[in-house]
Specification:
The protein is 43% helix and 14% strand. By secondary structure, it is α/β, with parallel strands linked by helices. It has two domains: 120 residues, Aspartate Aminotransferase, domain 1 (Alpha-Beta Complex); 247 residues, 3-Layer(aba) Sandwich (Aspartate Aminotransferase, domain 2). The N and C termini lie far apart (52 Å).
Length: 402
């Protein structure tokens, strides 16, 4: 992997990095968190993989598949700090977490403990699984604003009962964009014999990851969001000692392979080969990792965080409302949610896009309206200016009493 530029080198300009992405120039794109955005050279590598597949499908899938996937998994494993046989590629984090949720042997009366800040699709996943098994999905409230990590750990852990079998948490929450103190909660859960399942959809590429040190049983993260890989690339991590708990969502040739094949991981065998499919997005993940290394991504993240701090201050000044967390990298990285006065969230989001060309989500959460702002390498202070001016204008029309 290429080394980072010297610390004394000048960082790339916003416009230079903006040209690396395929995003439309007429849109102020502040919603990287929803689906990500792929840089040109990474996307070109993705298309090259697809061409290779079509040029000789039998060679690609029949002879080259296993070594190519191993190389891609090894690069990703080095990046997230685990062993290559502890992770498999999946299309998205939701698929990875469904694999885990549907594999666990929950019994009637068991409880899955979580928070009220989780992603809606995974709430539905766990509710579906718990309903089928007679278990309960228990959501603990984390009130805003948060102040300390210990406070959050205490709020969540106070929901543990003798029936708690699973602790399910987002590393970075979707609606409120908070970096949760998952390490402390994972440690407590392991000591109590509770299985830990972490939704890392927004983590890879936005915050450093060390899955071996984190110690979670299962962790699923997206590569297509903050790591800037193509759509349809994500991973599921499972510690070696719990891999036997996982059943593949799709049973194919990797299931129950003969022991004399001496394959290193049943987990990989059963989940990696699922018949004919386009794996180009998975094979492109190393190119995304390389792209970020080539462009000194730690410095890019620092600059994005600084710009997001400016958004935080300007929106607080505009609305007079308190941000949901302390002003610290411990709580937010390149994405943050900010409270808005009571308003019609759908109308506000539509107005931002239709009238001002601003792509940013306005979400309803626990009876509140929040605007979730993502700052990626291609964003500039001018984008922030457009957002603030647009909100100042539209809030006058959509709020009640402002």
């Amino acid at each position: 992997m290429a080394s980072h530029p010297a610390a004394s080198a000048q960082p790339e300009s916003f416009s230079s990095l903006r040209q690396q992405f395929l995003l439309r120039l007429d849109i102020t794109f502040l919603n990287h968190g929803s689906f990500g955005a792929c840089p040109r050279p990474v996307f070109e590598r993705y298309q090259k993989w697809q061409r290779e597949l079509e040029e000789q499908p039998v060679e690609f899938l029949g002879r080259r598949f296993a070594p190519m996937m191993l190389e891609a998994r090894t690069t990703l494993a080095d990046y997230v700090k685990c062993s290559p046989d502890e992770l498999v590629f999946v299309p998205n984090a939701t698929t990875g977490l469904n694999t885990v949720a549907r594999s666990l042997t929950l019994q009637p009366g068991d409880e899955v403990l979580t928070t009220d800040h989780e992603y809606g699709a995974l709430d539905r996943t766990w509710l579906s699984v718990c309903r089928a098994r007679g278990a309960s999905y228990v959501r603990r409230t984390i009130p805003l604003p948060v102040h300390t990590a210990d406070e959050v750990v205490e709020w969540v852990w106070s929901g543990v009962t003798p029936r708690t079998r699973v602790l399910f948490l987002s590393h970075i929450t979707s609606p409120t964009a908070l970096v949760l103190p998952v390490a402390g909660l994972v440690r407590l859960a392991r000591e109590a014999g509770i299985t830990t399942v972490i939704d890392g959809a927004h983590a890879p590429g936005q915050i450093p990851l060390d899955l071996a040190s984190l110690g979670a049983d299962f962790y699923s993260g997206n590569c297509h969001k903050w790591l800037c890989a193509p759509k349809g690339s994500a991973f599921l991590f499972a510690r070696r000692d719990v891999q036997g708990m996982i059943d593949p969502l799709v049973v194919s040739w990797g299931w129950n392979r003969d022991a004399d094949t001496m394959r290193p991981s049943r987990f990989v065998d059963e989940n990696e080969w699922q018949g004919t499919r386009d794996v180009a997005a998975y094979l492109t993940v190393p190119a995304a990792i390389q792209f970020q290394a080539d462009h000194d991504w730690p410095r890019v993240r620092d600059r994005c965080h600084a710009l997001l701090r400016d958004v935080r201050q300007r929106l607080s000044d505009l609305t007079g409302l308190t941000p949901p967390c302390p002003d610290s990298r411990d709580w937010y990285g390149q994405m943050a949610s900010f409270p808005l006065p009571p308003c019609d969230a759908t109308m506000l989001q539509e107005g931002l896009y239709r009238q001002y060309g601003v792509e940013v989500p306005v979400v309803e959460w626990q009876g509140r309206q929040l605007v979730r702002v993502s700052i990626q390498a291609y964003n500039s202070p001018a984008d922030v200016q457009v957002l603030v001016k647009a909100l100042a204008s539209l809030l006058r029309d959509t709020t009640k009493g402002l």
